[in-house]
């Protein structure tokens, strides 16, 4: 994601300091190194590596704009500091994006697209679909086909020919495990997955099974929080009014996906 902030800035004639997440520093440094190999003058694109203290120092320094992708809490802190200094802040914070599949949708197309919309990068994408709503007449058929699609995916080292890799750290693995545990304790049904992977070849990584949950209610953590990993709650709905209320029942936003063969219906739904 570093390029989405760096490239517009340098095209507009600015210099940039990148502070990557302390959990993904090496990959972000590689991107910055590649950018600098294009022939930019020294000092145009820079990188500093560290934790939250480094980020605080950067925001407190003489900058003209802060571009941040990360948690809502950290984003709000940055926004306040930028407001105090009367400088701009571009923030992309937590997301719990909704996917909606109407009964008239092409189910095979929706299954394939929503598989990647949820499980790309092991579900660790801020705009990923994290809550999925399926109209009642096709609910069972959709869930059945989605489960079969998940079973085809290969989990393992992302540098090899696999589809789904590990979570970024042990802390996130534990968070995801607790979110699934909370859902089960409140009545959720695990359709597939639901466990930390402990097989010999993957036991040293932060691997979690691709998971589908049904029988969902609104007080489960998988609906209230951002689920950053390969877990997807699927909810049945009956009317447009119902699904609008369900999709909007979150403190997060960011994006949404709608699947229908009726373009006008899709536009109407998108506007609500």
How does this model look, in words?
The longest helix has 16 residues, at 170-185. This protein is of the alpha/beta class and 272 residues long. The protein has helices at residues 2-11, 25-36, 52-60, 72-85, 107-119, 139-152, 170-185, 221-224, 240-248, 263-271, and strands at residues 16-18, 45-47, 65-69, 88-92, 97-101, 129-135, 189-192, 211-214, 231-237, 256-259. The strands form 3 sheets. The chain has a 6-stranded mixed β-sheet, sandwiched between helices. Helix 2 (25-36) links the parallel strand 1 and strand 2. 40% of the residues lie in helices and 17% in strands. The chain folds into 2 domains: 1-92, Aldehyde Dehydrogenase, Chain A, domain 1; 98-270, Aldehyde Dehydrogenase, Chain A, domain 2, CATH 3.40.309. It starts with a helix and ends with a helix.
Give the secondary structure arrangement, pairings included.
Blueprint: H1 2-11, E1 16-18, H2 25-36, E2 45-47, H3 52-60, E3 65-69, H4 72-85, E4 88-92, E5 97-101, H5 107-119, E6 129-135, H6 139-152, H7 170-185, E7 189-192, E8 211-214, H8 221-224, E9 231-237, H9 240-248, E10 256-259, H10 263-271
Helix pairs in contact: 5-6
């Amino acid at each position: 994601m570093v390029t989405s902030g760096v490239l517009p800035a340098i095209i507009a004639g600015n210099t940039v300091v990148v502070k990557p997440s302390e959990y993904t520093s090496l990959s972000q440094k590689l991107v910055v190194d590649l950018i600098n190999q294009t022939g930019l003058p020294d000092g145009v694109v820079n990188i500093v590596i560290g934790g939250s203290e480094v980020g605080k120092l950067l925001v407190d320094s003489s900058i003209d704009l802060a571009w941040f992708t990360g948690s809502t809490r950290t984003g709000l802190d940055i926004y306040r500091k930028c407001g105090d200094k009367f400088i701009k802040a571009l923030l992309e914070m937590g997301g719990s994006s909704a996917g909606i599949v109407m009964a008239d949708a092409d189910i095979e197309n929706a299954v394939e697209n929503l598989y990647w919309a949820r499980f790309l990068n092991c579900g660790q994408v801020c705009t990923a679909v994290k809550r999925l709503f399926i109209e009642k007449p096709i609910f069972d058929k959709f869930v059945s086909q989605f489960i079969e699609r998940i079973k085809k995916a290969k989990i393992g080292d992302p540098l090899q020919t696999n589809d789904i890799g590990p979570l970024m750290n042990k802390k996130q693995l534990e968070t995801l495990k607790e979110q699934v545990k909370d859902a089960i304790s409140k009545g959720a049904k695990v359709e597939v997955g639901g466990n930390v992977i402990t097989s010999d070849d993957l036991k040293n990584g932060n691997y979690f099974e691709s998971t589908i949950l049904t029988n969902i209610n609104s007080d489960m953590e998988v609906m209230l929080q951002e689920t950053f990993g390969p877990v997807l709650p699927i909810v049945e709905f009956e009317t447009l009014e119902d699904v609008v209320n369900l999709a909007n029942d979150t403190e997060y936003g960011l994006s949404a996906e709608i699947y229908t063969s009726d373009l006008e219906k899709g536009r109407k739904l998108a506007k609500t």
